[in-house]
Amino acid sequence: MATVQTLDNIRTSLERHLGKKILLKANKGRKQIVTKKGILENVYPSVFVVKIYDEANGYSRVSYSYSDLLTSNVKLKVFKHQDKLSVS
């Protein structure tokens, strides 16, 4: 079982990447995996928010809990070269 300290460690590691461009892979169940590019917009005590640009709909925001990262339902990858990805 995940401790509060483990979830706090995940939150603090995400705080270092605020405003950076990321690749988000989310498992929606029944073998449906969504892959989107976005910006890590905000970190709250229980959830984090990613701003995603979709050409059809414009901007949208999704939020996930830190336990989603812990259980690998959501995976994040921070891009090394922040200037090469156009999300804005």
UniProtKB/TrEMBL annotation:
Chain segments annotated as transmembrane: none
Matching Gene3D superfamilies: 2.30.30.100
Alphabetized InterPro entries for the sequence: Protein_Veg
Coiled coil: none
Signal peptide start-end: none
Superkingdom assignment: Bacteria
Protein's UniProt name: Veg protein
Source organism of the structure: Romboutsia hominis
Upper lineage: Bacteria, Bacillati, Bacillota, Clostridia, Peptostreptococcales
